[in-house]
């Protein structure tokens, strides 16, 4: 009976990039999990607004991942917004998310256990509750 969504496509297009009060996804999700995701944003402000808007009051956003900002120094010169972790947390709070359970988790993204080479990311983890 639980609603679940896993969709391929542009996050802002699928879940409503504009601040439309009639957006069918608005206030529909009790929890959102983002894993190695938020640094794919051209504009993280838009991602945070969408996350906030589609959460129910008291809904929880759980995040894990690095901030490697995929659009930084892109070859097409598309403008993008890249924030530090601290700047991102300040913005999330201003948008109406209360951040808790913050920590850094060392993790891999893809890995070959039989290889001598491996990459470890110092990934940011937090939970955030919609308070406004």
Automatic annotation (TrEMBL):
EC numbers: 2.1.1.22
Superkingdom classification of source: Eukaryota
One example of a Gene Ontology biological process annotation: methylation
Matching Pfam families: CARME (PF07942)
Single GO MF descriptor: carnosine N-methyltransferase activity
Record keywords: Methyltransferase, S-adenosyl-L-methionine, Transferase
Entry similarity comment: Belongs to the carnosine N-methyltransferase family.
Protein name: carnosine N-methyltransferase
């Amino acid at each position: 009976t639980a609603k679940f969504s896993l969709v391929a496509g542009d996050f802002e297009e699928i879940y409503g990039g504009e601040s439309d009060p009639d957006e069918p996804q608005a206030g529909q999700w009790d929890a959102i999990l983002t894993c190695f995701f938020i640094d794919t944003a051209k504009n993280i402000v838009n991602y945070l607004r969408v996350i906030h808007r589609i959460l129910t009051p008291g809904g929880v956003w759980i995040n894990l991942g690095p901030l490697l900002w995929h659009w930084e120094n892109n070859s097409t010169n598309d403008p993008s917004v890249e924030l530090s972790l601290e700047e991102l947390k300040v913005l999330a709070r201003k948008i109406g998310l209360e951040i808790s359970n913050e920590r850094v988790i060392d993790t891999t993204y893809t890995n070959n256990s039989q290889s001598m080479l491996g990459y470890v990311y110092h990934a940011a983890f937090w939970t955030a509750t919609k308070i406004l």
